[in-house]
Amino acid sequence: MVQTFKLDDSEQAKFLIFHSDSHQDEQDYVNQFNLPNDVFALDDISAVAPRFEEIPQQDADNSLIVVLSNVTSRNNDVPVEDRLETLTFILQDNTLLLFLKEGSTFDQNLLHQYKDKFDSIASILVYAGILMYSNLHDELQQQKAAIDDLNNKAKNSTSGDVLRKVADTERNLVILEHTIETLDETVSELLATETFTNKLDNSALEYDLKWYNRQVIKLVHVYRDLLDSVSSLFSDLVSDNLNKLMKFLNSLSLVLASASLISEFWGINAGGLPGENSDYGTLGVLILVVISTASMAIFLKKKDYF
Which of 216, 239, 262 is the last residue of a domain? Predict the structure, then answer.
């Protein structure tokens, strides 16, 4: 699909969008637009794909390669790493190329939300970055809701299902954190490039992109810390439950040990034991066992060993 935007009376800018569903398609694009052979090398690993590169041109401004990572929200039960998509932008003179995987709706959302605000070919790339950060912000809010839910469950349960949910949420935040940090490097390099800022010529829009970048970085670090606190709470609760269980078992062993001591004493193969020749000897031993056991249980209960 090709989108053409007329920016003023003397300039015609082209925004070309391509969807690929195979490596052969990507190789065809490399040949068609004379791109570096490794331009799509990291597309399958969206968490580390973001990067910025300048390609020197002899008779024109340097071409810019900007690779970003967007997160989709089609199904929040799917891990974040499976919902990341790579966005490859090539800025050549007055043409912006966008390469997406087949099935991506990022381009549709971009045009729907910001088409009327495009005032330069560089501004399209900035608005794409803002949309990307907005999607990341929404994803982080969903992760925050999951953290809050885990925090509430931690007060009532330490079941295996909840612990697995903690592990899954932590994995999602780790992926998001590393993706956002890589995006920060890419966006910072882009906005520090004179070729791009001259084409953009919009300090307010440049500030907006930086602001979104800072906010997302802060949020992912805050939420990682929150999840760490929830994980620590779960670990402490599991340890506390284990300590209580061991305390109970030790107390139970003391109660049973008192009964066992009396039974073993009267089981000695020697004469002279009290009640040895009495018809009520066995009953007397049982009564002593009950009294000893009850006494030990009452003592431990008063000491709160149960």
Answer: 239
How many Cβ atoms sit within 10 Å of the Cβ of residue 261? Answer: 11
Confidence of residue 9 (pLDDT cuts 50, 70, 90): very low
Residue 247: predicted pLDDT: 76
In b/e form, how buried is each residue of 69-106, taking b as 16+ CB within 10 angstroms?
bbbbeeeeeeebbebbbbbbbbbbebbbbbbbbeebeb
Which one of 218, 239, 260 terminates a domain? 239
Whether residues 231 and 246 fall in one domain: no
Residue 154's contacts (CB-CB under 8 Å, 6 or more residues apart) are 162, 230, 233, 234, 237
List the single range of 19-28, 97-106, 194-203 with lowest mean pLDDT.
Answer: 19-28
DSSP type of residue 219: H
Distance CA 100, CA 89 (A): 9
| Cβ neighbours around 170 below 10 Å, total | 18
pTM above 0.85, yes or no: no
Mean pLDDT, rounded, for 159-166:
75
8 A C-beta contact, residue 226 and residue 147: yes
Block residue for tokens 């966006």: 187
Q: 183: domain range?
A: 2-239
Choice between 111 and 280, residue whose per-residue pLDDT is larger: 111
- Kindly report the CA angle at 248 between 247 and 251, in degrees rounded to 5? 85
- 68 versus 242: which is more confidently predicted? 68
Q: What share of the chain is helix, strand, coil (3-state, %, to 5)?
A: 60, 15, 25
SS (H, E, C) 84-153: EEEEEEEEECCEEEEEEECCCCHHHHHHHHHHHHCCCHHHHHHHHHHHHHHHHHHHHHHHHHHHHHHHHH
Query: Which residue, 128, 277, 133, is CA-closest to 217?
Result: 133
